[in-house]
Design goal:
Layout lengths: L3 E4 L7 E2 H7 L8 E3 L9 H4 L4 H12 L5 H11 L11 E4 L4 E4 L10 H4 L2 H11 L5 E7 L4 H9 L5 E8 L5 H8 L6 E7 L2 H13 L1 H9 L2 E4 L6 H20 L9 E6 L4 H12 L3 E8 L4 H8 L1 E3 L20 H8 L4 H14 L1 E3 L2 H5 L4 E5 L2 H15 L5 H17 L5 E5 L7 H7 L4 H6 L3 H9 L5 H6 L9 E3 L2 H12 L5
């Protein structure tokens, strides 16, 4: 079955997967979704016999139906290679509480690598398939991890440039250093004085600016995206939920066909939306537990049916989740509203113009597969300490948010269904928060540049190559600007050599 894609906000054009990947987002401001969510075309028992790369092919071919088998297998082979420090790409760590799915063994030690190592190959393949001879400009906002992972994937890829905006004072020191030291003649990093939502809003506005598009086309450029508004970034994330289920079956933790819960630390909603798509494809899922930090906009939404971004923006120890406008929620709303583009547009317009929206009762009732909770910074630190005390396992603050919310969910509802917690980043990426939570003198250790060594001593895990390499990496990107569209657009034009306006 050919799967075509359409916008969440209009019932018009249907396009093939490669064009949806190439465009990134729809011109009406909506996100591309499959017109029909595909179903698994082989039994789960058969999937259990495959490794990660083969499961990736078996899942992606159902969504990216105009890519040939040769094209998909080539993209998978180029993405999932020695850049990862584990043979099977994803590792698991069992504790008494749950199974932690480690998604951080890629080149930037965060879960974004699972999709952003393959996206450049999917995108350049899409360009060839569609006869696109313009240079592709990747424009993206990041809350900390997407930017580095995207740049690492696109650095020096012929026919592409990539520009990343990040909140200057809203990411961890290691996240910032990873970005500002990024190599590649086609890369540009800009720190903005604002938060992620400011950056994301301005990036979308630049994307949809008609004059900007005309000026770029005249000079041989076109935009695309690397964050999870691009379906080519989202589809590969489905794979690791399917893979996790098959490993749990193979290890005898569950029977094939038995429901499995997933707890996912969530900011922009893409990671947990991928789990929802896996469920809609036929994966036996009990509950999807949406874990937020103190920016609890998603928790409030699932609790009340009202999404309200008009609230203080809180900087937390889990900065990749410091988000008040969760873009991928739009895709979920479209699906649970019965693929109703008018209703989706109503809600998105209300969010933009009024700062909030309410879902209809029938739509809210279709969200029952989701549970939600949140964890404060204090609870997050306590969870890092608790998990280490009980199991000797060191987790990062984002993973700790997921673990804390899962534990509170079990205590509240008594649901003992086997659960996989998405472990989204290495503890080395957030060493200050981790060391403090474990009772260490983080400031003294960092003054001696011994933070990573101490985490290694505590955890028994070697310091990742990505951390060691940063110690001698020179800073290459120093530009900052305010988080408004005019300022950010001016930097885009400067990067591309376009006339200012």
């Amino acid at each position: 079955m050919d799967v075509l894609y359409k916008s969440t906000r209009s019932d018009g054009e249907l396009i093939p997967a490669s064009m949806a990947v190439l465009r990134g987002m729809s011109q009406d401001g909506g996100l591309y979704v499959p017109a029909q969510i595909p179903q698994f075309d082989l039994p789960l028992e058969e999937l259990c016999g495959y490794d990660y790369r083969e499961i990736a092919y078996r899942v992606l071919r159902l969504f990216l139906t105009d890519y040939t088998e040769e094209e998909l297998r080539s993209c998978i082979a180029k993405a999932y290679d020695s850049k990862f420090d584990t043979g099977e790409l994803v590792s698991f760590r069992r504790t008494e509480q749950a199974e932690f799915m480690e998604l951080f063994h890629g080149p930037t030690i965060a879960f974004k690598d699972m999709a952003l190592t393959i996206l450049p190959h999917l995108l350049t393949t899409a360009a060839r398939k569609n006869g696109e001879d313009r240079e592709i400009v990747i424009l993206t906002a990041t809350s900390g991890d997407t930017g580095k992972a995207a740049m690492a994937g696109f650095a020096d890829v012929p026919g592409t440039r990539i520009m990343v905006f990040y909140p200057k004072n809203g990411v961890s020191p290691l996240q910032e250093k990873q970005m500002v030291t990024q190599k590649g003649e086609n890369t540009r990093v800009i720190g903005i004085y604002g938060n992620f939502d400011d950056a994301q809003t301005a990036v979308k506005q630049i994307f949809l600016d008609k004059q900007m598009q005309e000026d770029m086309a005249a000079q041989g450029f076109r935009f695309s995206s690397a964050n999870s508004i691009n379906i080519g970034r989202l589809a590969p994330q489905i794979v690791y939920y399917v893979y996790a289920y098959t490993r749990m079956v193979n290890r005898g933790e569950i029977r094939c066909g038995e429901p499995l819960n997933f707890a996912v630390p969530t900011g922009n909603f893409g990671n947990i939306l991928a789990a929802y798509y896996a469920c809609r494809m036929g994966l036996p899922v009990g509950k999807l537990i949406c874990a937020s930090n103190s920016n609890r906009v998603l928790y409030d939404f699932f609790s009340t049916g009202c999404y309200d971004r008009m609230r203080p923006f809180i900087l937390t120890t889990s900065p990749s989740m410091d988000i008040l406008v969760s873009s991928n929620l739009e895709r979920l709303l479209y699906h649970v509203a019965g693929d109703d583009t008018e209703e989706t547009s109503r809600m998105m317009n209300a969010l933009q113009e009024e700062g909030h929206y309410n879902v209809r009762e029938d739509v809210y009732n279709n969200l029952e597969i989701f549970a939600a909770g949140y964890a404060t910074d204090e609870e997050t630190a306590a969870e890092i300490a608790r998990v280490y005390r009980e199991s000797g396992y060191v987790i990062d603050p984002h993973t700790a948010v997921g673990a804390c919310v899962h534990r509170k969910y079990v205590e509240q509802y008594g649901d003992r269904t086997k659960t996989v917690i998405a472990s989204t980043a290495s503890p080395y990426k957030f060493e200050t928060a981790v060391l403090q939570a474990l009772g260490e003198d983080a400031a003294a250790l960092q003054a001696e540049d011994r933070g990573p060594e101490r985490i290694s001593e505590i955890s028994g895990v070697q310091i990742p190559r990505a951390v060691l390499d940063l110690r001698s990496a020179p800073v290459r990107h120093r530009i900052t600007c305010d988080g408004t569209k005019p300022c950010m657009e001016a930097e885009v034009r400067r990067f591309l050599g376009l006339a200012q306006r």
